[in-house]
Amino acid sequence: MAAMMAALRGPVARFRLRTWAWTRRTRGAANAVGGQQQGFDLLVIGGGSGGLACAKEAAQLGRKVAVADYVEPSPRGTRWGLGGTCVNVGCIPKKLMHQAALLGDMIKDAHHYGWEVAQPIQHSWKKMAEAVQNHVKSLNWGHRVQLQDRKVKYFNIKASFVNKHTVQGVDKGGKVTLLSADHIVIATGGRPRYPIQIKGAMEYGITSDDIFWLKESPGKTLVVGASYVALECAGFLTGIGLDTTVMMRSIPLRGFDQQMSSLITEHMESHGTQFLKGCVPSLIKKLPTGQLQVTWEDHASGKEDTDTFDTVLWAIGKDAASYTYTSSRKLAELNSLQQGSSPSFPAPPGSSTLPAPK
Ligand SMILES: Cc1cc2nc3c(=O)[nH]c(=O)nc-3n(C[C@H](O)[C@H](O)[C@H](O)COP(=O)(O)OP(=O)(O)OC[C@H]3O[C@@H](n4cnc5c(N)ncnc54)[C@H](O)[C@@H]3O)c2cc1C
């Protein structure tokens, strides 16, 4: 009995500390647990293009608005700031890298137009990446300022539902914040998928969540997938002079006009991107040199083949970012600790507990 009490003392003390943090750090948190008062008119979960636009518009219309945004680091450990996929690991850095590639093409053409350009021309990934990353960081800051200007409260927390008007957020230090709102918008976007059935895929591969934040050049790259993300990444990697191969299982840009898709892949091929069509990777192995040996099956020939690459980039689709309900039992504990009263919330459907962000 004494041993059990001693074992429990730690967690209970921690729980009390957390309760104190809720009451100090969040407006309306205690009331939210008691179910008496709403903290905000609108709470938006997700600070990407969708969430920020929604929050700013509602604030403009005079509503009391909060945004909860939290970036779960990629399996590689890449993390970024406010603004979501487009700003940090999508449209913006991608367009800047396309611009780098286009400039390279123009420099190659320039001497035909009378420009004296020292040959061979060199490209520094390090310089480009640093400039792109600094630009993205300035946008992160800009988004925070925009929220502040519109009086939208920003919480850097990973949110999960407690009930339909209450959300629990955990920050990177494990501190918990409770927020309540009349309306809650889920704008959590998606994250790139890994083919976890392929040995070495997650351990050694990267995705579009990482490529824009690499400090060093990815070198010889295999892009797996035939989505617009795959083709765009392969396009700018080829454009800045890297040996780039796209491996696709079937057709490029499924769901897009196939005549246009063929024009795109033909154009890419003419600019140096290599394509392995009808091929599916089966194993990624790290060699003592640090390079990655990729084994794949060629469905046309029925044979297995291998090659080595410096980087393997998965661009095989996205999964919706998940969020879960806090268990009703945990909520009951919380309620009685904070209010000294008995639990008053019904059990949410499909209850499960969200782990604290790592
Ligand atoms: C390489 C690439 C290039 C692209 N290029 C273009 C382009 O040129 N044009 C274009 O229109 N689109 C482009 N896109 C698509 C575009 O980026 C997305 O459609 C858009 O960003 C989606 O916005 P969103 O607000 O729905 O989600 P996101 O921008 O993904 O925002 C969701 C946010 O919610 C956060 N979040 C998730 N779960 C939680 C939680 N439980 N608690 C708190 N926060 C959470 C996420 O971390 C993220 O910050 C591109 C995408 C990629 C990957």
Quick structural gist:
Belongs to the class-I pyridine nucleotide-disulfide oxidoreductase family. The protein is an alpha/beta fold and 358 residues long.
Major β-sheet, in short?
6 strands, mixed
Beta-strand level of the residues, as a percent range? 15-25%
Summarize model confidence as the mean pLDDT: 84
Beginning-to-end CA distance, first to last residue: 33 Å
Classified in CATH, the superfamily of the largest domain is FAD/NAD(P)-binding domain
Quickly give the structural class: alpha/beta
The general outline is globular
Q: Treating each run of at least 4 consecutive H or I residues as one helix, how many helices?
A: 11
Topology as a string of helices (H) and strands (E): HHEHEHHHEEEEEHHEHEHEEEEEEH
CATH class of the largest domain: Alpha Beta
- Please give the share of residues in helix: 25-40%
Low-confidence runs: 1-38, 323-358
CATH topology of the largest domain: FAD/NAD(P)-binding domain
Could you say how many structural domains there are in total? 2
Question: Strands of the biggest beta sheet: in what spatial order?
Answer: 3-2-1-6-5-4
Q: How many extended strands?
A: 15
3D structure, described in words:
The chain is of the alpha/beta class and 358 residues long. It folds into 2 domains: 2-85 and 129-188, FAD/NAD(P)-binding domain (3-Layer(bba) Sandwich); 201-314, FAD/NAD(P)-binding domain (3-Layer(bba) Sandwich), CATH 3.50.50.60. Helix content is 39%, strand content 22%. The strands form 4 sheets. A 6-stranded mixed beta sheet has the order 3-2-1-6-5-4. Helix 5 (91-110) packs parallel to helix 9. The longest helix has 25 residues, at 125-149. The two termini are 33 Å apart. Mean pLDDT is 84; it is low at 1-38 and 323-358. Bound molecules: flavin-adenine dinucleotide. Flavin-adenine dinucleotide (FAD) binds at residues 45-51, 68-71, 84-86, 89-91, 94, 158-159, 187-189, 208, 229, 321, 323. Flavin-adenine dinucleotide is lined by residues 45-51, 68-71, 84-86, 89-91, 94, 158-159, 187-189, 208, 229, 321, 323.
